[in-house]
Write a sequence for this structure.
């Protein structure tokens, strides 16, 4: 889950840097229009990446859960199950905050 957070954070930083650079570079109205169109396209692309990343995270979680179920009962299995529960909780928190942000921008 920490990897997912880092990837999202990096994507947001790259997007912010790109947006800032495009707006700074746009000195004329025509350039500003082009920059805004490009910005919109970039934002949609990043949103798509985040959706794909969320889907991949959920699929990897399913694989981890199936693998954990196949382990014999032991302390290691209990620790792994606890870690998966913790990651699930973190993922729900991140997903909710992203959904809230997206819905606030779309509304």
């Amino acid at each position: 889950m920490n990897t997912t957070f880092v990837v999202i954070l990096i994507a947001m930083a790259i997007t912010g840097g790109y947006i800032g650079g495009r707006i700074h570079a746009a000195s004329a109205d025509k350039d500003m229009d082009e920059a805004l169109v490009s910005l919109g396209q970039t934002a949609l692309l990043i949103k798509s990446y985040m959706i794909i990343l969320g889907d991949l995270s959920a699929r990897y979680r399913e694989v981890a859960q199936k693998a954990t179920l196949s382990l014999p009962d032991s302390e290691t299995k209990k620790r792994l199950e606890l870690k998966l529960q913790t990651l699930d909780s973190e993922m729900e928190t991140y997903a909710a905050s992203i959904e809230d942000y997206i819905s606030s921008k779309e509304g």
